[in-house]
Please model this.
Amino acid sequence: MNNENWFSKEAISDRLTRICEPHVHSFFRANMFHVVGKDADLVIDFGMGLADLGSALDIPSGKPVLAVATHVHVDHVGSFHEFEIRLGHEAEAEAFALMPDADTLADYFRTQPDALTAVPPTGLTPEAYTISTAPLTTILAENDVIDIGDACYTVLHLPGHSPGSIGLLDQRTGEFFSGDAIYEGGLVDDLPGCSIEAYKVTMTRLSELDVDIVHGGHGVMFGKDRLHEIAVRYLASKEG
Ligand SMILES: [Zn+2]
Ligand SMILES: [Zn+2]
Model:
């Protein structure tokens, strides 16, 4: 399999592309997003690192690229190291620099049956899988703003799924990239590093958040009503 056809790409609009790895087991098949900005492009999340993501993206040479990881889990950071300007939350800064299994959970991928349905361009087998370290060049915290010229994204710290999970919200348009804090599909709060208590606070916040469209770390996009519904259901499921 060559580099170009390892990824699937879906044009959501003329400025937003969703990228996926169809040959990766569904548990680890995450969404990546490429946002074309006026002054800089934004790339959100980085898949498994089994192919060269940067060359698969349509980015003019010389244009600045801001690479933002929503959190340090294995299915979101594999190709993070390819990018020069790397942003992530302070709570996971050390994890990005070292990529230990305890934070990335890469050991779950190594031992996942049928982890891949095709040999990736790098030829890597799941058993030999490692993640290149990717120290942050910009450390993010709640309320920081990422400006790409014609859009600004506010950082929301949304811990629970992982300590440094973040979302990016364009407060002008309501476009919301939520990472694994919330998405359409089974949410994960029982792995090492998860905190149900923190997740409940995050879900309370998400249950009232004003957005237009949500692009999750997995699954399909959805709207505000569905965002609130998923959050309220999560909270109800943790009561009693
Ligand atoms: Zn995750
Ligand atoms: Zn994920």
Notes: DSSP finds eight helices and 13 strands in the chain.
